[in-house]
Specification:
Rossmann fold, 2 domains
Length: 273
Amino acid sequence: MGKDPIFSLRGVEFAYPGASFYALRGVDLEVSEGEWVALVGANGSGKSTLAKICNALLIPAQGDCFVMGANTREEALIPDIRRNVSLVFQNPEDQIVASIVEEDVAFGPENLGLPSSEIKRRVDRALGLAGLLNERRKGSFSLSGGQKQRLALAGALALEPAALLLDESTSMLDPEGRLSFLSCLGSLKLSGMTIVQITHRMEEAIQSDRVVVIDAGRAVWDGSPGDFFDGAYRDWSFEEPPGVALYRELLGRGLLPGGTLPDVDSMLGALCL
């Protein structure tokens, strides 16, 4: 039996006021509990709009979006929907609300009216996952751009949502910080978290369970990373990530078996043969 859907979009359309075109046009999409889905597409394709639809920040002009069975059109259900789904924006400063790091992370749980012991537990856990325990008493706006991105993630995690929506959330991280961030996402995935990650970085899409291509407001391709990087990525002029290029080279030399894309450790092992 398959897992229950966290998100279910049925014929979703949306246009911004005054726009002459639809940002989303007839999108049908389901994301199951525990899935990690990478949303990829050109700038202006509708990816961020789709994320805001899934968090009930925007309501479809046509069609319906269900979050854990709750229709985002039902205004009374929106607070519960937003407790179950945390959205991390591309610019972390849009989400910083307190001047001290740990106070910023505590803001969400405090608004839920949780006891102080539970707030402390959530703050400690979220700071640990985001790699900010040593910065907990620093000023929020004194952090580097990458640290602010981690702070936004920690604030989202402190709500302990069922699903995490990430809108280009690695864009301000350096390579080391990006790897650490993706490792954190991997741990969250193992814990059962549902992740929808908007990204322009094809190397990040490799780690997902599914890749969904958004083009001109439509979901035009949906499949596994293996199938995507087997050739479909070329249809939208995406760049081949270095890991896939290395895989093809090792495969051509007979150092790896065919099939699904291997992990980094497997490729490193093949290089050391």
